[in-house]
User: Fold these one by one.
Assistant:
Number 1:
Amino acid sequence: QVQLEESGGGLVQAGGSLRLSCAASGRTVSSYAMAWFRQGPGKERDFVGAINWSATTYYADSVKGRFIISRDNAKNTMYLQMDSLKPEDTAVYYCAVATKRYTYEYDYWGQGTQVTVSS
């Protein structure tokens, strides 16, 4: 079993920045894809971006150029650097890790961290 814990959420003004962390325990995740999703008020959970085992990253169009995903395999941790935040980025942010190596099927999820962007 893998446990994921997000941290770093909070309240920020539009145009500001936040850095989220996702710490994994129970398994070394360096060979697994990891991803960020978010769920805004009254909305479905949406893909934000992912980083695979080769540190290749993928982003939703809505965050491309503003968000950066990275990982530190020595710390078993993934990060989401969010810059130029907009009110529409307000959401609960979840991290996820793939169940199997070299796949993108996410079955392990964290509890989420709230990000609120004020206008």
Note: The chain is about 0% helix and 55% strand.
Number 2:
Amino acid sequence: QVQLVESGGGLVQPGGSLRLSCAASGSIFSINSMGWYRQAPGNQRELVANIISGGKTNYADSVKGRFTISRDNAKNTVYLQMNSLKPEDTAVYYCNARRLVFGTPIDYWGQGTQVTVSS
């Protein structure tokens, strides 16, 4: 099992910045990737960014150049720095960790943190 604890959401004006944090605990030795998804009302959950073991990163086109994902292996924590925020970034953001167990992906989710971009 993997436990994920998120922090850092809130209300910010357009153009502002926020940093989300996600601390992992438990069976972290077998985590293959960690990342952030988001879900706005009426929409499906979508990948925002993830980082694969080895350091490769992936970003949704809508956040490229504005968001940066990083990790601190010593703290088992992944961060999402969000700059130049737009109202359309408003959503509940979920931390995700994926383990590969005999090649089968198993996903774990944080509780979600609300990000609201509004003036």
Note: The mean pLDDT is 94.
Number 3:
Amino acid sequence: QVQLVESGGGLVHPGGSLRLSCLVSGSDFSIYTMGWYRQGPGKQRELVAVISTSGITNYDDSVKGRFTISRDTAKNTVYLQMNSLKPEDTAVYYCNARTTGFILNYWGQGTQVTVSS
């Protein structure tokens, strides 16, 4: 079956950086639009960044200019480079893989990112 495994979360000081990775197995990585979502304490899950099968990216306004999403088809992996981190970026970050119309839609287990001094 399709599995998404995130890694790279942790504790970082404000202004610091982290890079999240999400390895996709069990399916053809190239067919999926890949996204990163996050869910902060007491909040709903929200879209952070998305990258299409052709490499087109889109970001939530709150992370534009600070976060970069990328994908490596040879490694079946999507990345989220997070710079200039703020305390409000603290959340569990989830990787998502979906096809058009969400006919196929898969989630990872999440990785905790904590931004604190």
Note: The first strand starts at residue 3 and ends at 7.
